[in-house]
């Protein structure tokens, strides 16, 4: 049995064929369906190896049929070496046999699934009819967030800010022709003024204060994406104190999210409970809501399922002999017998 392999070029081809918005919507549909069967999954917080320059993580999850993991890094200074700050790949395997069925790039896909998860949460937490979003941090994830919120939430205007004006230039170029109104702002305070939704997606591995209580407005929804490991936050604690806070998987977010700043008994609600109707989401039009997003393995499971189905439908990808095929499964040594390579002198 061979393993389907999807390269960066293969995933890019799927996205070009179906469109960014359709891919985000498809992954969002899988996330919603998988979150609604939350109790069916064997879950754990990701395993992280931290260094002074970044972090490398493994993110596993499984149900009775399938197992997946993602290898992903976060190195904020990688751009100085012309490398992405986030790089990832993942596997989808059969629980019954352990056979890997899919090996795929997940760098592009992580951006798609992060936007999809943000939109799934905002659909139940943001005020209905929200049209204006502030986008703080205009780097690699920003276009995906913008298009996800445009097509799944109905956002019409983006108010943009980044400490690097060239990042905003890039974002504006890439969003030309999408129909979004793009407003460049000189500060975070200017960007969030009048916004219904505020998305923070910054990369620095620091306890930053991107959003302060003074910037909040009644009914605002905060989609906090960038605070995603110990020692890396974006929100002033005062923002969390006045908001209703929602998370993906509480044990992981307690260590990695913006709520790492708060007492261990600080109240939060897992989003799956809202989707299932077990807990309320937004209750008042004037309520301030925060989605403290750190990224959870179940979202990658949902994204890998989407890639597998799309690749099969479009005939994309190639198969690999990632696992040796053996006439006698007990004779692994026989696989290395035979003629040696003739090496050049």
UniProtKB/TrEMBL annotation:
Residues making up the signal peptide according to the UniProt record: none
SUPFAM superfamilies in the record: NAD(P)-binding Rossmann-fold domains
Record-linked Pfam families: OCD_Mu_crystall
Annotated PANTHER family: KETIMINE REDUCTASE MU-CRYSTALLIN
Protein name, as recorded: Ornithine cyclodeaminase
């Amino acid at each position: 049995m061979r393993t389907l392999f999807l390269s960066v070029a293969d995933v890019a081809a799927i996205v070009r064929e179906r469109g960014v918005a359709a891919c985000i919507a498809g992954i969002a549909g899988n996330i919603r369906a998988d979150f609604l069967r939350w109790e069916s999954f064997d879950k754990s917080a990701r395993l992280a190896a931290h260094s002074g320059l970044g972090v490398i993580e493994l993110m596993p999850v499984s149900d009775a049929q399938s197992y997946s993991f993602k290898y992903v890094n976060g190195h904020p200074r990688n751009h100085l070496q012309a490398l992405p700050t986030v790089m990832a790949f993942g596997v989808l395997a059969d629980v019954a046999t352990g056979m890997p069925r899919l090996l795929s790039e997940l760098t592009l896909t992580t951006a798609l699934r992060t936007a999809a998860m943000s939109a799934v949460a905002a659909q139940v937490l943001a005020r209905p009819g929200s049209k204006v979003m502030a986008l703080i941090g205009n780097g690699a994830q920003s276009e995906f967030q913008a298009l996800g919120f445009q097509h799944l939430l109905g956002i019409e205007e983006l108010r943009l800010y980044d400490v690097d004006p060239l990042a905003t230039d890039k974002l504006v170029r890439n969003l030309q022709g999408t129909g979004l109104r793009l407003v460049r702002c000189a500060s975070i305070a200017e960007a969030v003024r009048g916004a219904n939704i505020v998305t923070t997606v910054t990369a620095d591995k620091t306890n930053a204060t991107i959003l302060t209580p003074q910037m909040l407005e009644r009914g605002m929804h905060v989609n906090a994406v960038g605070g995603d490991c110990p020692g890396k936050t974006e929100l002033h604690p005062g923002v969390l104190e006045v908001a209703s806070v929602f998370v993906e998987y509480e044990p992981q977010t307690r260590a990695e999210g913006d709520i790492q700043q708060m007492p261990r008994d600080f109240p939060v609600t897992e989003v799956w409970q809202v989707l299932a109707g077990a807990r309320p989401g937004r209750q008042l039009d004037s309520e301030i809501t925060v989605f403290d997003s750190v990224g959870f393995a179940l979202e990658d499971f949902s994204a890998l399922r989407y890639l597998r189905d799309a690749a099969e439908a479009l005939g994309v990808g190639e198969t690999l002999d990632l696992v040796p095929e053996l006439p006698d499964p007990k004779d692994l040594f026989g696989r290395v017998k035979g003629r040696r390579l003739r090496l050049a002198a």
